[in-house]
Request: fold
Amino acid sequence: MQLLQQLRQQQLVRPLDVQFARFIRDEELSISGQAEVSDALPLLAALVSLQLGRGEVCLPLNGWGPLMENWPTVLRKPAEQLLQGLSESALIGFSVITDGQQEAPLVLSNGRLYLYRYWLYETEVAGRIQQLTAPISLNRDSIKAGLRRLFVDKQAGEIDWQQVAVAIAISRRFSVISGGPGTGKTTTVARLLALYTESFSQQMQRAPLIKLAAPTGKAAARLSESLASAQEALPVSDAIRAMIPNQAVTLHRLLGPRPDSKNFRHNAENPLHLDLLVVDEASMIDLPMIYRLLAALPPQAQLIMIGDRDQLASVEAGSVLGDICAWDSQEGASGQGSGEASEERPGLCYSPEQLDYLQQVCELPVPASGPGDSPVADALALLRRSYRFNENSGIGHLARAVNRGDGLGAMQLFDQSWRDIRFMALSDVGYGEMVSEVCEGYAVYLKYLRQGSEPSLLLKAFNQIQLLAVVRQGAYGVDGLNQAVEERLQRQGLINLSGNWYIGRPVMITRNDYQLGLYNGDIGITVADADGRLRVWFELSDGEMKGVLPGRLPEHETVYAMTVHKSQGSEFDQVVMILPAEDTPLLTRELIYTGITRARSKFTLQATPQALIRGSRRRTERASGLSWRLWHAAGTSEVIS
Reply:
């Protein structure tokens, strides 16, 4: 434990990690009855806890090297000596470590060390997905006719990947539709809901119970708005259209939160009351949430997850969407990629049975080869064509270059004549220019505020531009940027910083409040009522506006600038992203890609060329066994009965 105390003093592990290590040591001594225990055990326990805090589900036995690479030699060497030569059989010899067949604090499975709870989450999720990906018996002629009617705009001789996605999703109880920005995910979902509703109502003689959900209130509101628009163009009867919902809720609201508890009202014993569940922004879903969602799914229901597998993984533990879509990954790694075949990255391979089905109902040959990657492969659909970011879009070219890891190519794009992307050098002068331009954008909503405009219009105007950062501290972090913007707006007379709360202050909720119906990531604008009292106005996932007294708000922060992580599930007309000069492990390909693709019409990057190149090369690979269970061990995952 002396080594752990030294690591804590150097802030290389957290107090929580040391506390957990002490608990594991004491448990081992108590259960085994021994007088002492190897220092390797509490060190391993601390590393498992540390991993979880970093979003990693487990600790690979051959993967603790990266954890220690920044440790001083005087601490790294003794740690390596403690862990060297530890075999799986030696670890199973500890009373607090099992293979999962008996409950214990730690589980060793397939060369990975887990907290028991997270091993349970992973194995249950893998087993449930494998069960749900079995094909559903369908009337293929009916599906073919429906697809033909819904996709009349299909180009002759081309594969319509939106049509393929609908055909796949309707044929499985679990499916994933992955695509980048502008690939038509909303249009695809709208047509899928139409086909599902027609098929279900004809077969069951009743309207289907369909629910729409997303991880955050903002993502749910976006899904509601975009689906309402897309449904107007559907070639269906008014009766069918009336059965299709367009109001989404947050996952927490869907599952029914219990006050002061991490558990939900809906679970395996009290499942959700629905026939179809569509979940958008699936890349934001962590492992515990997908476990709870699958547990609450009724036996005959279908779950369709929509997202972009190339985006950042969830803030909390796991890389669920990446792991499910990991056909191109190495064993045990989380897969991320473009979804298209290349020399470096093979394309998704469907089974002969699935290929036969797609050829029949889509009336086109769909490329595939071999026996199929995994049963999970047949439940995946990739939207490959971007309708928003076409060949004339600098944003699209920039996102693709970063996604390939080509940071140098991305830099060269800024030197070309694209009107929708711009590079600003990271310097004191450039910093001031950037803050000035951002304030010009925010001046629009503040002008509407002075004119007495409705809160809904204020929020819409505020979301026209967003400043994104990678880190929180420093001039180039969220805290420094928020302060710089506030000071500039104050000098311009647009806000009055007489106190913590002021008219026009934009805030983001950082902790869920189920009673108020406000969730982490919700953004509100502070407005004075007729009596001069301040209220913060939020748009809820159902489109309703809600005003809350500042004193009643849960934890929150000013949000002229936000982290790229917090921007997931949102889109803005204009995005300004700033990368820090100093390198940080947070700066990854997925983060830069996510920041770029938040922009609809204009993207500005302020950084050093080295930061963009370095970040584009660094991929996020979270330790997890989910992809291995789904893609390399199909049918062999441990499933708890």
About this structure: Confidence is low (pLDDT under 50) at residues 330-346, 635-641.
